[in-house]
Amino acid sequence: MTTIGDVAKAAGVSVATVSRALRGVDRVSPRTRDRVLAAATELHYVASPAATSLVSGRTRGVGVITPYFNRWFFATVVSGIEKILREEGYHVLLCDLEGHTFDTRLPITQSMLWKRADGAIILNVPPLPSERSVLERLGMPVVTVGNQQPGWPSVRIDDRAAMAIATQLAIDLGHREIGYAGTVPASITHLQTPFDRRESFTQVLSDNGLECPPEWTLECDWTAAGAAEHANRLFDRPHFPTCIVAASDEMAFGVMSAARRHGLDVPGDVSVIGIDDHVHAEIFDLTTVRQDVEAQGRRAGRLMLDALHGRDSANIIDEVHDVQLMVRGSTGPPRRRSSRTRSRRAATAVGAPATVGSPAS
């Protein structure tokens, strides 16, 4: 294996000069640097990242702190971040905070990042005061995605506005009996999005003289399976809403699955609306409010690189990305109650095929 000494010998310079040339230190003439780079290329020399970081004090890594990694939203944000960082030779250090249950998470600690990352990008997790102290003590730049934090650049959508669009669509279609999927236990203090979207849903209903009864509110873990489980119980009731607004597309998928299992037509018997425009939303013909998740990741990566290279402006950026209503086949006006017969449900076995996402009438 080629060593730095071999490169120094081939270039006719000292090992220290090779080190400075490869790290881009200014105290090397352009001619000498070109000679070193040519020798390194010819000998296929690759500097040890660990050794380089010891000398420079930089790891060329960025810690990405996420509450979940196996969820579509977070994985897509990370993908966008990684695409930008690798353009300038940086890599992602994944810090997954997922706990053993939905309402718990691991803490952000110094050992996660110290001497392992040059900066941190935090996804949808409002840090506790003690965690913020850790990050400030480390003296590294921080960027947030999904929620705004004082003094740090952020990239996000307006979650309240997105939910208002989804809820208003249901009302504009004529629905007055509207359910909701996405309430989380009060113990979920480490995620802001669920509370913002629920509050917006309730406010829009109230502004239109409507309300969602508790039995039409699905509390779940923001997964398709969790939403399906709760929606199954809802559709077992003799009276259920004509439309369900879900706080995420994954939960909307769960609601649509439960409707199918009960022999219900979507949107004939129940309309379903989501938020996100998940990669599978178009396949499932789901009406949703689109956010460009990967673009948020790319922008967060760019803000981090700006900070690492001293290009950040004096003003703290809070960048709110636009959302877009995508009307598809899972929504339509409500049918009259007399036409929403229960006989189809009774005659349809669990798991039997039924129409999902038929065109709105």
Automatic annotation (TrEMBL):
<feature type="compositionally biased region" description="Low complexity">
    <location>
        <begin position="346"/>
        <end position="361"/>
    </location>
</feature>
<dbReference type="GO" id="GO:0003700">
    <property type="term" value="F:DNA-binding transcription factor activity"/>
</dbReference>
<keyword id="KW-0804">Transcription</keyword>
<dbReference type="InterPro" id="IPR010982">
    <property type="entry name" value="Lambda_DNA-bd_dom_sf"/>
</dbReference>
<dbReference type="GO" id="GO:0000976">
    <property type="term" value="F:transcription cis-regulatory region binding"/>
</dbReference>
<keyword id="KW-0805">Transcription regulation</keyword>
<dbReference type="InterPro" id="IPR046335">
    <property type="entry name" value="LacI/GalR-like_sensor"/>
</dbReference>
<dbReference type="InterPro" id="IPR000843">
    <property type="entry name" value="HTH_LacI"/>
</dbReference>
<feature type="region of interest" description="Disordered">
    <location>
        <begin position="328"/>
        <end position="361"/>
    </location>
</feature>
<feature type="compositionally biased region" description="Basic residues">
    <location>
        <begin position="334"/>
        <end position="345"/>
    </location>
</feature>
<protein>
    <submittedName>
        <fullName>LacI family transcriptional regulator</fullName>
    </submittedName>
</protein>
<keyword id="KW-0238">DNA-binding</keyword>
<feature type="domain" description="HTH lacI-type">
    <location>
        <begin position="2"/>
        <end position="56"/>
    </location>
</feature>
<dbReference type="InterPro" id="IPR028082">
    <property type="entry name" value="Peripla_BP_I"/>
</dbReference>
<dbReference type="Pfam" id="PF00356">
    <property type="entry name" value="LacI"/>
</dbReference>
<dbReference type="Pfam" id="PF13377">
    <property type="entry name" value="Peripla_BP_3"/>
</dbReference>
